Each structure stands twice: as C-alpha cells, then as structure tokens.
C-alpha cells in the first residue's frame, strides 16, 4: 500500500487531462509535462504523454508521478505540434502500465490517441457487443471502449465517428483526442467532469482545470460546454453541440476536494466556494473554542472561512510532511498509525490546553480522522470539535470517483452521533447539502450531489460491480 494512496481517507479522482495544439512552440512536450505536474493532484498512479508529429503519434507512459516518469531524454522524443497528457488514479481497470493513458489505437484510417477522465456506466454492454463483432481489447479500462467506437465508424469521417461515439456512451467523460492532425476535446452532456480551453500565441490548450493554464502562460478562453465537441487546428476552434438536452450536473466534490483552490470551474471559483463553505458551516454548527485549525491541506481554506465567520482565530495545529515521497509498506494496524504520524505532526504549543475546532473537507471511512484526534488528545488538547465542510458521504459514485462500497462509508451506516463516538470528538457537525450548494453559488439542478443524497443524474447499475471491469 503506498503512502500516497493512504491519504487520510479521501475520495479519489480518476485522472487529469492536458493537451496542446501549437504550430510555433518547440518544447511542446515540456509544456505538457509542466501542465501535468500542476494537475498531479488528480491522479498519482501513472502518467503519459502522446505527441503528433508528421502524421505519426509517439507516446510514452509509465507508473509513477509525472516527475518520476519523464526526463529530458524521453520528452525530447515526444516533440510535435499536438500533444495530450494524462495523470491517472484507477477506478475501472487495475493499476498496471497497460491501463495507463493516453491510449494510442491503430485502425484502418490511421491512429488515435485518447485520454479520458471519468467513468462510463454502459461500457460493459458496449464492450461485449464490440468483442462479438471481432474487436480486440488490450486493456481493462472503459476508455478503450471509446477509442474502439471511434475506430468502428472511421469510414464516416472523424467528426461523425466522434459524434456517434459520444452519443452512444453514457456516464462521465471529458476527453482529449488526437485524430487526423487535430486536437479534440469532448465533454459529456451532463458536464460531470470539467474541461476548459486556454489560448496563447500560436496555440490552444485543453485542460481539466484552469490552474494549469497559468503555468504554461495560457489565457483562459472558456469552459467546454456539456454535450460539446471542440476541434482545434490551424483554423482555430470549431464547436459541435452533439447533445444539449441533458440535466447539467457538474460534480460538487470538485469544489469540496478534487480541484485546486486556484482553479475556476464553469465560472465558479473553487477558493471562494471553500471560503463560503467554511462560513456557512460556522453558522450551521457554531461552537465555543480557542482556535480554528485545519486538517492540511484540503481543509485549510474552509477553516479560514470558519474562522472569519466565527471570529475565533485560525492557527496551525497540524503540519503536513510534503517530502515523504512514495513508500510501500504492509498496511497492518501499526503501520497505518505510523503512516499518519509520518504524514502529519502536531504543533503542540498551539494545541496543548486548547479547545480545538478542527476543520476537514470530508470523512469517508473515518479511520484516519480517529487517529488524528488521538494525536491531538495526546498532545494535550482540552477539547476537539470536528466540523466537516461537506455533507456525510452516503452513496457510491459511478462517474469516475473511487468511492468505497456503501458498507465502507461511515456516513451511510452510522448516525452523526455514532460517528462522533467512533472518532472520539466532543462534537461533530457536517455542512448541509443546501449549505454546500449555496457555497458553490450554482443552482442545485446544475450540480451532482449524488454521493451525498443518492439522486443520480442518470440511471446507474444496481447490481454487480460498481466499476464494470473490476474484480469481484
């Protein structure tokens, strides 16, 4: 078990996308490399880059963090005028290099490189149909289903092939594609996964988050619309709306945890939403305390908002070790406790004898929360009051977030009072669903809150595996 994978019981995003089209820059792969490092928080299992040069697609992908996978020698072999990059945390498919992306598929019309963020809920049926017709699959990920659908309809032209594929698949998907010398972005009709467009002198960028545009010097243009395909080449951007009739449902957990605070998603600032979540949390669940502190780093912004609203000073109480690296150890009880201590240390002088208001963004299983509270108690905390800047996670996600099964979600099987007792805090309060929606400042009809309330924006599998190719 990696120390990266054991990151305080958080939900996991599946991946991040970053693509560039440019006829001027000579260091395209290096720019994609920096873009992927900026998006590293979205996936830490594998990384890959595919580049289009003179009609051919060259690619490299491997397990590990971006800085571990690539070096100058590899990047210099990936030059061209189009490139797409991917960082992955697996949901469908196991964690092997064969499942890393981008996928590069050879077909009768040439080659396609594809990078996918999300999860398809009908991939199993489509894959069975394609295999019955003779298609051969090399991976266990649903992204390969999309590539095969495009290849199947290549004779209709690449635009129609992509439109037909996008209309046939269901679920969450943001795509970066290289096909016929063009950079193509696709977003699912619900807009569950984010994707935005940036521009700079001589080129365009497609990125999962706007924060990566700043790193490469690109200006934000706009978000790709739900149900839209954008085709980028020398003529600029062509837009195809292939489906605009679905309920819009951007994932609300992007604002809770996944996205970087300096990103803007569909016009809404992630930082501002987390500040507001903390303020609303302070109004919904006030408590007397000496300091407000955060579980770093994901709870920090909400903790600042809670402190501002409550008038109680914000102080650091936990310090995060940012230089731990990737370690692999056996996950027995003693090692789990050691891993928490390696990741976090207590600033005793701010904690001892104090009534603490501890802010975290979410609780999934609750095991790490208990260990953190135990550390604070041992450091002399007088009281520990836990406040969570999201509602209880009660339902599994089928759209590209690695949620445990419902029986592993502490919010699904226990009451708030039972959770409080289990974690060992003096009081516990969660942000309401209404408070979360208000903090994001979007209509609830434009957000997916299914992991909190179970109202999915589409039909989801009600039997079998949550992810279609995972082992039983």
What's the CATH C level of the largest domain? Alpha Beta
* Total strand segments: 25
Strand content: 25-35%
> Number of folding domains?
2
Folded structure, characterized:
α5 packs across α6 (158-168). The relative contact order is 0.13. This protein is globular. It is built from 17 helices and 25 strands. 29% of the residues lie in helices and 27% in strands. With 472 residues, it is of the alpha+beta class. A seven-stranded antiparallel beta sheet has the order 4-3-5-2-11-10-12. A six-stranded antiparallel beta sheet has the order 6-7-8-9-13-14. Strands 18-21-22-24 form a four-stranded parallel beta sheet, sandwiched between helices. The protein has two domains: 12-249, Glutamine Phosphoribosylpyrophosphate, subunit 1, domain 1 (4-Layer Sandwich), CATH 3.60.20.10; 265-453, 3-Layer(aba) Sandwich (Rossmann fold).
Task: Explain briefly what this protein structure is.
Helix 9 (270-284) crosses helix 10 and helix 9 packs antiparallel against helix 16 (433-440). This protein has two domains: 12-249, Glutamine Phosphoribosylpyrophosphate, subunit 1, domain 1; 265-453, Rossmann fold (3-Layer(aba) Sandwich). Mean pLDDT is 89; it is low at 1-8 and 463-472.
